[in-house]
Amino acid sequence: MVALTPGKKSGVVTSVLQRIGLKSDHLQLMSMGSVALCVALWMRAKTVDQDERGNAERRALFVGLWPPTFWLISDSLGRRERRRRWR
Length: 87
What we know:
Distance between the termini: 29 Å
Oligomer: single chain
Number of domains: 1
């Protein structure tokens, strides 16, 4: 648990991502890539036999949950990048 001082916002995830060198553009590309992966997995699910189809469709749906997460983290990281540029 991170203790926050009054008036200080928590940016643990974005600060760690920034320290390792990720930029908001990288996460936006990951978001778009996961959309493509979801579509590919969904199309592949249509080619497997009926016994395995349910599992393949669930996998595609699971990957389909990633894009909004990556995009929102990218947005937070982008705001942090803009704040640093203005300073």
